[in-house]
Structure formats: C-alpha cells, structure tokens
Write a structure and sequence with these properties.
Blueprint lengths: L11 E5 L4 E2 L4 E6 L7 E6 L11 E4 L8 E8 L4 E3 L3 E3 L1 E2 L1 H49 L12 E6 L8 H10 L3 E5 L26 E5 L14 H33 L5 E4 L3 E6 L3 E10 L1 E2 L2 E2 L2 E7 L21 E5 L3 E3 L2 E10 L8 E9 L5 E3 L4 E8 L1
Parallel strand pairs: 2-9, 10-12, 14-24
Antiparallel strand pairs: 1-3, 3-5, 4-6, 6-7, 6-8, 10-11, 13-15, 15-21, 16-17, 18-22, 19-21, 20-21, 22-23, 22-24
C-alpha cells in the first residue's frame, strides 16, 4: 500500500477581528495549510524571531501599538516547509478614535445649527411676506370704487376727531361746538336705497335727498389700532410655521440623541479602580478593588463573563500571569467578585483582590482584566493600581 506524502502548500492566514485593532483588545491569528503528513505551524513577526509557541492559532492579548506590524506563519512537516504571505495588523490608539469622534460630533453640530438658523430665517421671511400681502389686500378692500360715473349732486362730509365709539346724542352737540367742522365734497355713485360699499364706520347710508350732510367717524392719528383688524389667517399661518419649526428641531435633537447614544456605546466596556495609588506597610493586609462595565447584549449576543484575573506581569507571549497561580503569592492572595448589577443595557460588577502578609517585593502595579464571549470582549484596567509597601507594623 502506497501513501503519498506532500510538503505543506502555501499557508492561508487570517486575523480576528478583522480591520483596525484597538489598543488593549485581543487579536487571534490563524494559519492553515494542506500537507501530508499534517503540518506544524510557527508564527513569526517580520524581521524578528519566533513570537509564539508552535501552534496553528496565535492569540495576542492586550495588544499595544508596538505589537502591530507584519506577521507570517510557517507550515512545516518532514517533507518540507513553506511560509505564508505577510499579514498586517494595524493597531489604533484609543485617543485617536476619541479625536475622530469629537471632530465628527463638532461637524455635525455645526451642520445642525446652520440648518436651524436657515429654518428660522425662512420662517421670518415667509411671515413677513404674508403680512405685507395681507396689508395690501386690506388696503384694496378699504378703497371706494371710483370706476363708476358719479352723480353731480355734492354731498358734504363732516369729519370729527371722535373716539372709537359714537357718543350719545345728548353729548354730541358740545363736541360739535368745540371742534372745527371740516367739509369734504364727495360723490355717491350708487342708486337709491343702496348701501355705501366701504364707509369708514361701516354704517349703511340711504340717499333720500339730493343734498344732505353725512357724518362719519374719523379715527384720531394717535389712536392705538385695533389688533383684531389683522387678518386671522396671518396668525394661523405663523402659528403653523412655528409648529412645523418645532417639529423639525425636535426631530433633529432626537437624531442627535440617537447619535450620541451610539457614540456612547464605545464606552460601554470600561474598567475603573477605586484608587490608582495605594501605600501600605509590610506584614499588613491590603484590598484592591476594580469595577468593570460591559453591555448586556451586543451583536445580538448576550454577554457572558468568562474569566476575571489579577496580574502584575506577563509571560514571554505577552499573556498575563494570574496572581492566584503565581508562586510568589501562594497562600497570600484571594480574589472575589460581587453580584452582577444591570441598569438599562449595561451591566457592572465589582471585584476585590486581598493580599495578606505584605512583603517589600509586593510593590508593583496590579492590573485587573476580564474576558467575555463577545468578539474582542477582553479589557484591562488602564491604568492599574500602584502598590507601595514600606516599613513594618
């Protein structure tokens, strides 16, 4: 029986998550190749020695900008070996993302303010135009029709500077004696028993004689105009326009709230410690606490916390060394976490590290990390808690 043997083919490589990688997150590199017998894999960074243990997958936890660059894997078996193409990992600083987000928000705010000012300007222009049109229409309705042929009979108009309301007959004579009487000759072009079309007082006058004196009210120049003379359609129009403007502003504000909510979602993954510096003495006990926050659900997947750990150092693969398994802290450390508290769409939990019988060598920066089932859902306290051990009890 003959079995064919083949050297590894050109390996295919991939990275998860794809695209830009945020500093502090977790990245997994994968490599695969067809070979007989099965190939073994080793990951390399360009111009550097091996960066990981032999394995098909290589995970970088808490990645930094220094760890970014070109990576490749080598597949090898007893027949031969073959290198993959270069895989570039672009690590983005969190501060740069914040700068981009702030710039985007500033541009959007400027656009929104310009739109609001434009709406207000259009509203004012529209209302002023309607107001001018209404005044013009009222002036045309108040003029007498001069297109018809007037009668030759003169009629005298007695113009008196009276108040807005007619005085009683008993009080009219003193007023007439005190004021000068001004006569104006007018011609009436209507037939008998026909109302005058537009008199200043709005009273119907019938022509019974060829000549008679017509009394009409003349409003004083300094009298306050009656606000009811403004056409109600102007008020309705302006009120409707203001209502539409309010709706537009509310819509814009609602969209902005949604935008800020989505933007705020970037801060749903946080680790906050009670203090960044702790000072204690040898032989005592110290408690260090950190609270981590995460979204209850993301990408249609409910978030589950898989692991929490405290560490002060990393191994040569940049993986944190759990204090509970560190020989220098055997029997002296204890880690405990409280109940999970969820408010709205975010959950938080507090974890505490207790170190007893403190030693001088315990002086270090203590970091807390939690890991979830979400892609890239692994976060570390930044900065950690600096513990300084001095003196004795």
């Amino acid at each position: 029986m003959y079995l064919s043997t083949d050297a590894p083919q050109t390996p295919s490589v991939s990275v998860s998550p794809s695209g830009e990688v945020v500093e502090g997150s977790s990245v997994t590199l994968s490599c695969s190749s067809d070979a007989n017998p099965a190939a073994n894999y080793t990951w390399f960074k360009e111009h550097e020695d091996s960066v990981g243990e032999p394995g098909q997958n290589y995970t970088i936890t808490h990645i930094t900008s220094e760890l970014g660059g070109h990576y490749y894997c080598q597949a090898h078996n007893a027949i031969g070996r073959h290198n993959s193409t270069l895989l570039f990992i672009n690590v983005t600083d969190k501060s740069s993302l914040t700068t981009v987000a702030v710039g985007t928000v500033a541009v959007l705010l400027v656009i929104v303010l310009l739109l609001i000012f434009l709406l207000i300007f259009l509203l004012i222009f529209f209302c002023m135009r309607r107001k001018r049109a209404s005044r013009k229409a009222c002036g045309q309705r108040g003029r007498p029709d001069t297109g018809e042929q007037a009668l030759p009979d003169p009629v005298y108009d007695n113009v008196l500077p009276l108040t807005n309301r007619l005085a009683p007959a008993a009080q009219r004579e003193p007023i007439e004696e005190q004021d000068d009487i001004h006569y104006a000759s007018i011609h009436i072009s209507h037939s008998e028993n026909q109302e005058v079309p537009c008199s200043s007082a709005g009273f119907p006058v019938q022509s019974r004689q060829t000549e008679e004196v017509l009394y009409s009210l003349a409003q004083r120049p300094n009298a306050v105009p009656d606000s009811t003379q403004q056409p109600p359609s102007l008020h309705v129009c302006c009120d409707h326009a203001f209502h539409q403007l309010n709706l537009c502003v509310l819509f814009i504000l609602n969209e902005m709230c949604l935008f800020f909510t989505v933007l705020q979602g970037n801060d749903d993954w946080t680790v906050t410690c009670t203090s960044s510096n702790v000072c204690s003495v040898r032989g005592s006990t110290v408690d260090i606490s950190c609270t981590f926050k995460y979204p209850e659900k993301q990408h249609d997947l409910s978030t589950t916390v898989l692991e929490t750990l405290w560490f002060t150092k990393e191994d040569r693969n940049q993986k944190p060394v759990d204090l509970l398994s560190d020989a220098d802290y055997t029997g002296r450390v204890e880690s405990s976490c409280g109940e999970i508290s969820c408010i709205g769409s975010s959950c938080n939990r507090k974890c505490t590290l207790s170190i007893t019988d403190l030693r001088q060598s315990d002086s270090a920066v203590y970091n807390f990390r939690f890991k979830t089932n979400q892609p890239g859902g692994e976060h570390t306290a930044n900065p950690g808690v600096a513990l300084s051990v001095t003196g004795t009890l």
